[in-house]
Amino acid sequence: MRIVSKLKLLMWSVLLAVCVMVPLGVMAQDAEVAGAAEAAVEAPVDAVEAMATALQDNINIVWTCVAAFLVFFMQAGFAMVESGFTRAKNTVNIMMKNLMDFSIGTLAFFIVGFGLMFGATNGLFGTTHFLLSGADWTGGDWNFTFLIFQTVFAGTAATIVSGAMAERTKFSGYLAYSVFICAFIYPIFGSWAWGSLLDGGGWLEGLGFCDFAGSTVVHSIGGWLALAGAIVVGPRIGKYGPDKKPRAIPGHNIALAALGVFILWFGWFGFNPGSTTVGDGEIGRVAVTTNLAAAAGAIAAMVTAWIITKKPDGSMALNGALAGLVSITAPCYTVSGFGAVAIGLAGGVLVVLSVYFIDSVLKVDDPVGAVSVHGVCGAWGTLSCGLFNLDGGLFYGGGLKLLGVQAIGVLAAFAWAFGTGLVLFFVIKKTIGLRVSAAEEARGLDIGEHGMEAYSGFQIFTSM
Amino acid sequence: MKLIVAYIQPQKLNDVKKALFDKAVYKLSVTNALGCGQQMGYHESYRGVDVEVNLLKKLRLEIAVNAEFVDATVDAIIAGARTGNIGDGKIFVLDLAECIRIRTGEKGNEAIG
């Protein structure tokens, strides 16, 4: 017992000594800092400013990289949405398409696309910056940050098409498509609207075209390509009955689809606020407009479907959230919170009507609603800049000029993506082949294209 | 009374249902089935290793009918399920000893109809 109490005494005295010594040490440090501060007053103010600039530059780089990583995660969202909304027998195929369009797209964008989009322009597209050339790629931290940020955007445009062509497209034909979108179709249009973000330039941005994060550049381009692909490949067997009426082919896992939508919503906080590429309070402001529009879109789609089908259809509400997000992507930086809600609400109504229209009137089979969500709502979001922009919008006394420019951009995107898409998919159809055999479609692309099943060991009721 | 048991290709279910309804046969049970026959199997591969799959996905239909409906039912199943390829399936017609409707206790021909 005595030894223990002696030990205790020792511990207390050590503790006491530490308590006394540490503040003394800190005081000594304070004195040093004060001395340094006096010296700093005499130092040129430029040094401080340079330090602040370097700090801000690094914050910008960190934020833009984090945003790029969030946007990359949207690939997982697309994979989940598309597999959830389609049948179990095609799940491996959907996963492989999502993996490969990003992987092939990354290389295609690195080799060709980035230069076409952001290199010094010849008037129609960029001609420098291919394969890390043409710019300062040694000490230029920003250029690498910008490259990864733009690569994940190109990947997003590419992966939109996968869902619209799901469950019947030949895998090798899809791989061929994914080279061309990230190498040519996406970057050339991108150079028209966004080229000056680095060393390029384009006619659309010259007109004053407003597309902050890519309602048109990313989503409409992907959506209209998806429309072209779905038309050329044709509807799934059994989608339209002998009476030409559309039949439901229910998706196999709404929980996966919902997870995908939540992942996409999360990723959009990189997509829109990340497009500021600046680490300051604007991140929060753009996150608010983005979130408001997504919420409004989900509610509006739910209500619209509730009125039309008498039930709040879960798959439509999920599409509605995405519709709000796509719609706010162009105007997220330039509208108020109220504007964002209005834009999201309109997007949510629009997506439901568009899904019915494309399914029943156009008779184009789009299993996941990609054309409605990305093409139609992308066009709406782009036009909404002309209505709701606080500076130049029609509703804020800006007149019709911006709305006209936005309409030109929307039409140009449709003509370019739908036109090149029709040609591309038609050429693939005639060469590699775009569609699997009827027998393979019935058994499922997982076995036919990949020789394996996604849910091995599960007995899944397959009668469609 | 006969019990008709048929194994068909899964994707032909809608066609078979429609053909049965056209012949006024409205009652059937459908279950998942795995089976092998003349169609043989196919090969999957999992992580580089070959997997032979010889049990294929089929659907099993069970339809209990009165004697006068047997031919119509068999014809309807053939009309709906036939593609002419190996793997279209088989139909078995069995004698049915008794049929009882649980709700009312009716037996025999009345219970089937």
Contiguous runs where pLDDT drops below 50 for at least 5 residues of chain B: none
Q: Helix/strand/pairing class of chain B, anyone?
A: alpha+beta
Question: Rough shape of chain B?
Answer: elongated
Strand content of chain A is under 5%
Number of domains of chain B: 1
CATH class of the largest domain in chain A: Mainly Alpha
Q: If classified by CATH, what would the architecture of chain B be?
A: 2-Layer Sandwich
Segments of chain A where pLDDT lies below 50 for 5+ residues? Answer: 22-28
Percent of residues in helices of chain A comes to over 70%
Series of H and E elements of chain A: HHHHHHHHHHHHHHH
Mean pLDDT of chain B: 91
Helix content of chain B: 10-25%
Q: What oligomeric state best describes the polypeptide chains here?
A: heterodimer
**Largest binding interface between chains:** A-B, 14 and 17 residues
- Per the CATH scheme, the topology name of the largest domain in chain A is Ammonium transporter fold
Strand order within the widest sheet of chain B? 2-5-1-6
Termini separation of chain A comes to: 82 Å
Main pleated sheet of chain A: none
Structural class of chain A: mainly alpha
Instruction: Name the average pLDDT of chain A.
Output: 91
